[in-house]
Amino acid sequence: MKSFLHNLSIPFFISILFLLLSCGGPEGEPGQERITYSLPHVLNTDHPVHKALERFAEELETRSGGTMVVKIQPGGTLGNEQELCDNVTNDADAFTKISSTILETKTDLAKVYSLPYLFRDEDHMWKVLDGEIGTELLDMAIEQNLKGICYFDAGARSFYTKKKVDSPQDLHGIKIRVQKSVMMQKLVESLGASPQQIAFSELYTALDTGVVQGAENNIPSYYTTRHYNVAPYYVFDEHVCIPDILLMSAKRWNRLNPEQQAWIMESAEVAKEFQKKLWKEKNREYMEKMEAEGVTFTYLDNKEPFVEATKSIYNEFEGTEVIEYVKRIRAVN
Ligand code: GCU
Question: Is the per-residue pLDDT at 153 higher than 60?
């Protein structure tokens, strides 16, 4: 007796094959009708960086005529930033967006951006990031399968606490949450506080229950997580400006043709410029909202005590490539 399969025609198999390809698997290959990429990250959906990622996905879908689709998974539901970064290294995920300080586990060069008071101001930062140095550093972890696509503004990070802080002395002995970053740990230690590594998505509870008495971040992250409800004192010491970075698996990047690669880069450029504007607007809006809700913002006439206390962090890099980058960055006008 002939099997059921023998009764099926070749055109039938071809059409099934076509159907499967046109649906696109979770991670399709170029040449297929549609490639669907994953892009998990830890921020909330009202965060300006999430909005920029949505813009990136829209642009890419349009430019590619619907053949390149990015599925964004926000809120840290798929892991913390270290895990998300490792997943791209292992090619389990196509994309992620993380704070670039996390890349220090992949390459020492990532430590450059986590150095305290590296940039003179926002203009200086963007000149560096958009220029030759920033472009070089986008691919700092390419050996680890991490292709840098673009940076996003993550502003300046400042401390926020349960009790008012306006000098390094006020931080002495208190527990401050830090990202999974030795650099950030050292920075907090240099100010006399005790650093505690806690995942971003677990921080609200840690602040609420008193596991830590403070943390540090930019205004949009402080606002969109509602951390201000449990740590209502924010001091603009602006100790670091660590850009966010959009990363893609280099293996997958290399499998794309030049046209597809150009669509990704053009979409990222649009998203980056969109985010720069939105960032400014949202910073203003969120500060007004938080002020209305009783948050105390402290502006420092003189940041020198913070600059002085954290300066020694540069010493360990004497004679390394990190210092070469610092010199080049400082020389950018
Ligand atoms: C910033 C950054 C995030 C990061 C977070 C943190 O908000 O945009 O990528 O996770 O800081 O402190 O963990």
Answer: yes
